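A reminder from the course coordinator: this example appears on the midterm review sheet, so study it carefully.

Given structure:
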């Protein structure tokens, strides 16, 4: 039957023949997608009876008919009414006799049933309304069991497809590895395994961010700390060095954060007192424009045309004087419909601060005097209240409000008010008014003469450190290289613990110089343009905007290095396809980079893929360094080890060796993390909840690992002779229960699921697949005492069945990067 299938369907993918082990029954040839074979064979059977039932030949439409055969619904399968379903409308259009789909279904079912007597494929055929339900024989479904146990069905495809590079993890040195990094690592590692499994030669690559401002910040803080504390960094225990370094980086970020020195971290912004507010004199001025006179210093007044709201005479507002910059533009005196406006009254949103809620009086419409005209904007703009806001009936369409709805216009932003508690005076810098002098516990903080000057001083020191690294200063480079090794050593240990493979490590520092030269060369070729001294790519005609690749001062950017890195991948590693596992915030960046590579003439650019993924968050929300809610790797590892030991392994102390307990602990921990990270759609955020992820029930790695361990337990019980009878011969026709048929259908669909995950670059489907298989097996296990089988052939068949289910669960887990345990 299957050899016939391969002749009539040459496009079916078949496994390589393999000699069976001595003493084993040789398994039949089974293609990778037996259910797809069944659909095509059913189409063949329908074609045989079509002249009788339909009065027409349909041999030319076999593929179309096969495509309409689908797996029956769960309710139909559970009731034993069918495994596959063919809707009558798939063939009714060919009929030259009956046109009623229900009658066609009944006639086809009867003809197929008669024609399939003694068939190895079809056990029964039933018509249900307009559908033909086909029950497959246990002999056909069971062949996959023999193929799995013979090592054929689950064997990887020979590596003959496109060469793929999968770049993932990409941590920055001098920063701590935390739970958020785990999702990228799990996702990239899983894709490496999947692509190799389906026949792609794969190069697993990492790209370390080992240069740039973040390192300069870390080393700047490190040197300050060493000098202040007279500390010797070589005394730090080796196991703690990387996270200590990450702590230095976080401390540097805090030291450079103006918000930790002042409650009003708005440099160059001063307090200005509102002296008067008048409606703009121009008849065509927007209704929210007002002419405001401000006291900007003790002796100076300025006039500003303001479109904001929420302020009144006597208030102190945030004012940006002339000569400063706002949104990358210089603030200059500007004529606004006959009134010269000098400076800007800043809104809360312009300062990155949420607007305070409107007071009750304002919500009811009784706004302050300067915003009464703004209230009119709510009327006749689709707002509530007032006859003018009602839509007129469409004269052509009659009643029913056919006229266009007018959108409600958004209210202007609220102007930032400097609260009285800051004791504002005209011209006082907001940064100084909000200066923090006590910490949260009420203790005095170190005095800072001037907040802006101090932050500028610190940033200059960081800049000096960066310059020293870039110009090859001996001491700076030595410290950089020494501490970089700390990070890399720790990363390697983490990857080993996670069982993540990397074939090549790229470093950002390795492509800095060459990437700048490459951009210059491409500009000479005409691929790129110059704009204001910078070299750029104008991608507007592709709706991808404008991308700077080399600043006017000659400095490169991330995109500059990504272009060179891609060139190396294509030319040195000869990859046909390149996958970048990077978070979703970089989507536009990679679209632009891929388009530039295409313009540079690289055909492989069309096969470059950015796999954007969601973030890892806590039940309480996003992780925050400032709030101390980031979970570092060492913390995660400790939490998992303690939890897993207490919940699962403590009871085996004295029964298992220490080595066995530690090995099980590690695999359970890795299984918990990887399954938890992968068991979600790639694009969605993941909520990390250790107690849920490590549960022994539900959609968890441990649940699936335990299902596999149960299959090993069955094999061990039989091998140890703890059965009523000795195993006889395997007879897959004995696998007739509905739960067994359901699992046979499920494992027959293994390769379809794997290919689907690869095509979508999304392993979540495989997580769901193995969980459903584990769930089905656990139900079967509870209801079938294998060791208690009284018939030798039944025992052998059940053993073979459990072994095949276990092998499939194991392969799924391995593809997810999880190593199952033989005992739990």
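Designed residues:
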């Amino acid at each position: 039957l299957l050899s016939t299938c391969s002749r009539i369907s040459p496009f079916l993918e078949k496994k390589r023949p393999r000699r069976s082990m001595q003493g084993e029954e040789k398994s039949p040839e089974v293609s990778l997608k037996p259910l797809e074979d069944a659909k095509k064979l059913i189409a063949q059977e329908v074609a045989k009876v079509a002249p009788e039932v339909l009065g027409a030949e349909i041999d030319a439409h076999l593929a179309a008919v096969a495509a309409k055969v689908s797996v029956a619904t769960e309710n139909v399968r559970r009731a034993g009414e069918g495994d596959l379903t063919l809707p009558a409308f798939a063939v009714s259009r060919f009929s030259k006799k009956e046109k009623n789909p229900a009658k066609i279904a009944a006639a086809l079912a009867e003809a197929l049933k008669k024609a399939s007597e003694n068939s190895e494929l079809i056990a029964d055929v039933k018509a249900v309304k307009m559908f033909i339900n086909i029950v497959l024989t246990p002999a056909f479904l069971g062949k996959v069991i023999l193929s799995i146990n013979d090592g054929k069905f689950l064997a990887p495809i020979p590596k003959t497809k496109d060469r793929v590079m999968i770049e993932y993890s990409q941590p920055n040195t001098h920063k701590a590895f935390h739970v958020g990094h785990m999702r990228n690592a799990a996702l990239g590692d899983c894709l490496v395994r999947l692509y190799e499994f389906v026949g792609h030669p794969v190069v697993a690559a990492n790209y370390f961010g080992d240069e740039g401002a973040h390192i300069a910040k870390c080393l700047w803080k490190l040197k300050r700390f060493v000098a202040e504390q007279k500390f010797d960094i070589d005394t730090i225990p080796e196991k703690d060095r990387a996270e200590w370094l990450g702590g230095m980086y976080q401390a540097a970020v805090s030291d450079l954060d103006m918000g930790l020195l002042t409650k009003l971290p708005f440099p160059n912004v001063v307090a200005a007192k509102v002296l008067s507010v008048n409606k703009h004199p121009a008849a065509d001025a927007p209704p929210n424009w007002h002419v405001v006179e401000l006291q900007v210093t003790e002796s100076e007044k300025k006039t500003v045309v303001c479109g904001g709201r929420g302020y009144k005479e006597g208030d102190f507002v945030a004012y940006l004087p002339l000569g400063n910059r706002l949104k990358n533009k210089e603030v200059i005196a500007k004529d606004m419909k006959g009134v010269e406006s000098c400076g800007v009254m800043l809104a809360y949103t312009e300062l990155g601060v949420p607007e305070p809620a409107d007071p009750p009086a304002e919500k009811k419409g009784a706004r302050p005097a300067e915003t009464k005209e703004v209230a009119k904007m709510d009327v006749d703009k689709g707002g509530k209240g007032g006859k003018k806001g009602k839509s007129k009936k469409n004269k052509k369409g009659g009643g029913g409000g056919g006229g266009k709805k007018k959108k409600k216009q958004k209210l202007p932003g609220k102007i930032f008010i400097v609260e009285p508690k800051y004791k504002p005076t005209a011209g006082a810098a907001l940064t100084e008014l909000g200066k923090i002098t006590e910490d949260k516990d009420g203790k005095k903080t170190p005095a800072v003469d001037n907040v802006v000057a101090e932050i500028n001083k610190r940033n200059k020191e960081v800049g000096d450190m960066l310059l020293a690294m870039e110009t090859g200063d001996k001491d700076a480079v030595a410290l950089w290289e020494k501490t970089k090794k700390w990070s890399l050593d720790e990363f390697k240990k983490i990857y080993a613990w996670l069982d993540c493979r990397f074939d090549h490590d790229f470093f950002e520092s390795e492509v800095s110089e060459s990437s700048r030269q490459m951009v210059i060369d491409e500009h000479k070729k005409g691929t790129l343009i110059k704009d204001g001294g910078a070299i750029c790519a104008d991608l507007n005609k592709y709706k991808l905007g404008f991308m700077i690749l080399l600043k006017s001062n000659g400095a490169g950017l991330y995109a500059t290095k990504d272009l060179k890195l891609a060139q190396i991948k294509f030319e040195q590693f000869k990859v046909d396809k390149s996958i970048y596992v990077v978070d979703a915030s970089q989507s536009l960046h990679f679209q632009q980079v891929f388009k530039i590579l295409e313009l540079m003439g690289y055909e492989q650019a069309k096969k470059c893929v950015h796999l954007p993924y969601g973030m890892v968050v806590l039940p309480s929300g996003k992780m925050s360094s400032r709030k101390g809610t980031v979970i570092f790797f060492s913390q995660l590892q400790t939490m998992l080890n303690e939890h897993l030991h207490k919940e699962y392994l403590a009871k085996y102390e004295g029964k298992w060796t220490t080595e066995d307990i530690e090995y099980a602990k590690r695999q359970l921990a890795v299984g918990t993390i990887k399954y938890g990270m992968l068991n979600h759609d790639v694009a969605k955020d993941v909520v990390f909840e250790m107690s849920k992820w490590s549960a022994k029930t539900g959609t968890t790695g441990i649940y699936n690992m335990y299902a596999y361990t149960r299959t090993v337990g069955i094999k061990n019980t039989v091998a140890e002779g703890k059965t009523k009878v000795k195993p006889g011969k395997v007879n897959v026709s004995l696998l007739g229960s509905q739960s067994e048929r359901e699992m046979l259908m499920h494992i027959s669909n293994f390769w379809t699921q794997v290919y689907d995950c690869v095509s979508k670059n999304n392993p979540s489907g495989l997580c769901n697949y193995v969980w459903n298989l584990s769930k089905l097996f656990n139900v079967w296990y509870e209801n079938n005492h294998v060791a208690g089988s009284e018939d030798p052939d039944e025992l052998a068949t059940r053993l073979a069945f459990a072994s095949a289910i276990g092998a499939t669960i194991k392969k799924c887990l391995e593809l997810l990067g999880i190593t199952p345990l033989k005992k739990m």
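Residues 177 and 633 are 6 Å apart (CA to CA). The two ends are 42 Å apart (CA to CA).
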